[in-house]
TrEMBL record:
Protein name (record): Type-4 uracil-DNA glycosylase
Top-level EC class: hydrolase
KW DNA repair (keyword) present: yes
Keyword annotations from UniProtKB, A to Z: 4Fe-4S, DNA damage, DNA repair, Hydrolase, Iron, Iron-sulfur, Metal-binding
InterPro entries in the record: UDG_Type-4/5, Ura-DNA_glyco_family4, Uracil-DNA_glycosylase-like, Uracil-DNA_glycosylase-like_sf
Keyword Methyltransferase among UniProt keywords: no
Assigned protein family: Belongs to the uracil-DNA glycosylase (UDG) superfamily. Type 4 (UDGa) family.
BP term (GO), one: DNA repair
EC number: 3.2.2.27
GO terms, molecular function: 4 iron, 4 sulfur cluster binding; metal ion binding; uracil DNA N-glycosylase activity
Reactions this protein catalyses: Hydrolyzes single-stranded DNA or mismatched double-stranded DNA and polynucleotides, releasing free uracil
Cross-referenced NCBIfam families: UDG_fam4
Length: 217
């Protein structure tokens, strides 16, 4: 068991989660990532593929300890093929920098939906379900130390509830059979509209930072 495994197991124990499995030794291999991303870019499982410029599988460190999951690519992301590269992406970068991280090192960023919904609307339930297998495959390949879900759609998708972000944030949960520690926070785009909520988002980021350091939030 690696040092990271020990830290994650300790965190889960303090959360009251006793079921835990080590990631497979082949997790995160380059060939598996390349194959997965190729399949995502070819996906036509829902109508969103009809209006996309390109699918946006995700970007960052493929051996990252932190996985950030947003909702769906925006217009800028659709054009560039990368997640969180508009104004909300700039804020996300600043948030990560505040806890000593950046998107190219120790962080992988993706979205629940891999294609841009028209009019920048939220992805619909069927569209989320069409992409759910891709997201689950990414999580299994990455086997992160913890997951940060940003935004209501991401939070409800990863927790499997309809409780709403206000109810879900501020606590540790666990994702899937691997019981990966999961935290929920506000989407950067929401914080741009409602900057008064940045203090709450900062609390969530500090909790993630402590988790990555092996401490208990």
């Amino acid at each position: 068991m690696t040092e990271l495994d020990v830290r994650r197991k300790r965190l889960l124990y303090e959360m009251g989660v006793t079921v835990w499995r080590s990631p497979p030794s082949s997790a995160g291999t380059g060939q598996a990532w390349a194959r997965l991303e190729r399949e995502i870019t070819r996906c036509e499982a829902c109508e969103l593929h009809q209006g996309r410029t390109q699918a946006v599988p995700g970007s960052g460190d493929r051996q990252a300890r932190l996985l950030i999951v947003g909702e769906a690519p925006g217009k800028t992301e659709d054009a560039r093929g990368e997640p969180f590269v508009g104004r909300s992406g700039q804020l996300l970068d600043a948030m990560l920098a505040a806890i000593g991280l950046d998107r190219t090192h120790d962080v992988f960023i993706t979205n629940v939906a891999k294609c841009h919904p028209p009019g920048d609307r939220d992805p619909r339930r069927g569209e989320v379900q069409a992409c759910q297998g891709w997201l689950e495959a990414q999580i299994r390949l990455l086997a992160p130390a913890c997951i940060l879900a940003v935004g209501k759609v991401s939070a409800e998708t990863l927790t499997g509830t309809r409780d709403g972000l206000g109810t879900l944030r501020g606590q540790w949960m666990a994702w899937g059979e691997a019981t990966i520690p999961l935290r929920v926070t506000y989407h950067p785009a929401y914080l741009l509209r409602y900057p008064g909520e940045k203090a709450a988002a900062w609390e969530d980021l500090l909790a993630v930072k402590r988790a990555l350091q092996g401490a208990v939030a």
